[in-house]
Amino acid sequence: MPTLPSLNLLGDTAPAPVLGIDLGTTNSLVAVWEGNAPRVLSNEHGIAILPSVVSWTEDDSVVVGGAALARSKIAPDKTIHSAKRLIGRGAEDIQKAHLQLPYQVEDAKDRPMAMVRMGNRLISPIEVSAHVLSAARAQASQALERPVSDLNTAVITVPAYFDDAQRHATREAAKLAGLEVLRMVNEPTAAALAYGLQRGESSRILVYDLGGGTFDASVLQLEDGVFRVLATAGDTALGGDDIDSALVAHAAQGIQKKCGLNPLEDSSACSALRLAAERCKKNLSESTTAELSFHDPEAGIAWRETIQRKDFEALISPMVERSLKYCKHVLQDAGLQIEDLDELVLVGGSTRIPFVRQSVESYVGKEAQAGLNPDEIVALGAAVQGGVLAGANVNALLLDVTPLSLGIETVGGTVSKLVHRNSPIPCRATEGFTTFVDGQSAVKFHVVQGERELVADCRSLGEFILKGVPPMPAGLPKIGVEFTLDADGILRVKAKEERSGAAASIEIKPKHGLTDEEVESMLKCAWENAESDMQARRVSDLKTELETVLRSVRKNISLAERELSSNHWTRLREAIEDADDAADGDSPNTLQAVLGELEESAYPLAELLMNNLARETVTDRKVEEIIGGES
Amino acid sequence: MQESKGKLREDPFSLLGLPKRFHIPLSDLDQAHLEASRIWHPDRFALRPEAERLKAEDHMASLNEAYETLKTPIARAAALIEAEGLKLDKGTDTTSSPDFLMDMMELKEEASNARAKGDSDTIQSVVKKLTSLQRQEEELVFQLFDQIAMEPNTRTEKLEEIRGHLQKASYFRKTCGDLLTPSALL
Q1: Cys-Cys with A177: which of A134, A505, A536, A552 at CB 3.0–4.6 Å?
Q2: pTM score
């Protein structure tokens, strides 16, 4: 079937928007730029928040969001939450972070990529995040009444402190979900974007972002629509999850004392306790006492305790202190004093805790900005950036920085830094190196990310080797190394020996991610496995498309009747009837057939409309040219 | 890398449209970078063909590099000298007296012996010495620029003097850097 001059050309439907997705540790949200403001998109029940939880049912189909969250109690061993804390990491990293996760984490067979053990198989956090992103995409499709296939570009937010490996992994997840990431925006920056756009005056903003699993602090300068990030700092292992964990640990102690059983040893008990802790935490934000209770009749456990808010505050105070220390660092890096700040913006569900809010406000000496929902603000900011990239009339420009220094290993395990943290991106840096041994013909480049002086304390991003260096005495070769960081903070490294011209270049592929082949095969697998899923989606896509075309045709029906030849008119009328009949059915083949016939029989009408349009606007161009120029 | 070799790289002052002066108010620098970013940031090219987008990204990287260079006084001084067509041979010192070079050799040897023995106190004291020498040279550079601001007609000869001090400063810095972080790769 030839590509038709889609009726959308006539302005019947707006161009597909860029999705702004906040892929959170606990919850995700999706928003779009609409007209002159961002809007959060809700599901059919009017709920915008999509829990970042994925569960596998008995027949191995995948459930995402609220339904998956509901299953975490009945099928904890088949349900994965907080995948964001694993993404782009190795099992060792996870162990070091002392996360209390109700599932077992181990490395993939052949590389240090953390995977979740589920019975006899391993599931990668990238796959889990991909399911969440797919669900967000589907939610947007429903809210916008557009086929899923229309929504294939996105701005996705990541914690500012995500390193190269974690960014790569997030990008892979998006690819698996069928989304091209136009830009990755740091979460605190996105929040500032949403806030700043509302206000529009020039100011210096501290964004304090305590999410489910990560903490970021950023200082931005807003001037005339330009958001310049001055500095950013944070911790990818500090968040609301840790607050829950503190409560869980407290409860576990009490339970052990009373019942002599450790609930943390049982995954379903652990899961239930976690939910109870989360509920208790939320209640403590509303009232000064809350009940934390746990019952497991099978194991003979019945335990409850009334938690006082002040005890809870003492429990989480070390975490809050840690976050304030980062605020101090970030101000130092930005070259500012606390008094220089004009505004404080709080982001993330954990900033709902009164103690957190009060501590930050008293540290900064200012009240936090109110107005936007802290759960939604990051997604709103992502949508703003989506609008910027889609060329919408948004007066905003984001100048972001790289959160971590980038360097190369030199002899003795030390790091030579090429790009320093808080450098504006995109950026480029070059540095000269030489050899250590006489006659050395190959040189190893070990690229690392982090602030420490020793390689062992930094994060390894990858290695590559420059070969073909002609034998020379040590110290004589001149090896130029160039780092380029793009606007997403993704790194490319090039090296060249100046005397011989030997050159090598690499885009850093982190060890903790998927290989290209794996992404390919997972994409294929997803297609094959989820055939019924696909069919349902296809039916819904076809229906949406059919409705869109029908609407456009009906809008111009009087013109068609008036100006089409009788053959064309009859064919179109019949096609409309057939389409109406088929619209309620569920057979993709029938839908496809009536849609094809409708589109084809509407072609003369489209041509007519195009010609009318062409006559009005571009008098000297033929319709063929316009169509040709579009396809 | 070929590209930067092939054509003459524009100096950071011209890139940002700023006068070739040492004394530039930070607000002017911020403003210039902001204006250039408005035009060249890759976000402005999201809908353009890939070739254009990459070109913008590359140019934005140069603008950011220029901005960072001009923000740091000593890097700004070096950039100015180079922009005036004077050559800076970073890390090597060709202007100094043999006596000075001998002193340096001794200092380096002291450091490398200390390193072999794992004597961190001596390394620290050599590093301290080098750092203070570097600071002295840098201070002279700043003073000379102040003098140029007062007596513009002495500019040409002062720039030549500044070049000498910059070269020494960068020589100290590099020697010190090599002590702490060797520039050799495995």
Answers
A1: A134
A2: 0.76
